[in-house]
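User:
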Amino acid sequence: MEAGGKEPVVGLALGSGSARGWAHIGVILELERMGIRPHVVAGTSIGALVGAVYVAGQLAEFADWVQKLTARDVFGLMDITFSGGVVKGEKLFGFFLERHRNPNIEDLGQRFVSVTTEMRTGREVWIARGPVLEAARASCAMPGLFSPVKFGGRWMLDGGLVNPVPVSPCRALGADVVIAVNLNAQLVGAHLSRSSRQEAERESRSNEERSVWRRVADYFSAAEGESPSFFDVMAASVNIMQDRVTRSRMAGDPAEVTLVPTLEDFALMDFHRAGEAIRQGRRVVRHNAHDIRAWMGMPPARSRAQHAARKAR
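Assistant: Predicted structure:
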């Protein structure tokens, strides 16, 4: 706690990172288990989506759903196009809108901001009003993967291009202590991992479906031993850029606690591996629990031996 016993205003900055972003779910669930409920949530790209579902009070149901996704389910939710991006996102986000509440941000119990990039000017834009899921969608337009989104009459690109780990919006909305989740520390080299390709092929229900799947998969990644595909190059380039932007911005405005889930083998589109990412999100919070509790002004957690000794008295 701050001087005088006042509870600090806690901000949670959820960074970009495509499929790695399911780790945000584990981070939030573990923080809540510790008794920490952030007052301010800022999200970029996948962080904006998870953050939006969380502040709308639907994270538990969302976590259950994403952990049931298979590689085949993921590609079934994608509307492939080659106009402005590979995936329009309309089918995917339409699915979310059908199954999740979409309250206005200003009516929520927690403060929320979605970070996006205006395509025409390159300006960083914070969305803190209006329907929460639409605000999140505006932040999820990674070049080479999701198509740009028109929001408020302006075309928006992925917020990770300008602010991959949104610490600054948390500060602007009054956070005294910011817990940041950085998913860009380990570089991603591909849109789609080899194991994911194999899994989706096994799940295909007919030769025709398998043939369609292979054509789609070939767009996203080259076969082993071949030169990198266009989208492999795009994935690596954007990830390298976001890593450098993250380092620069966080050097100038560091969070009190920075969590870095270890998800080195995740490709950008491994959305069907939510269980692994969520477990790692929980693990990284537990690993940093001492620092987190210290910044919250909470007493250190007792060890099992201490609990046993206390019961024995």
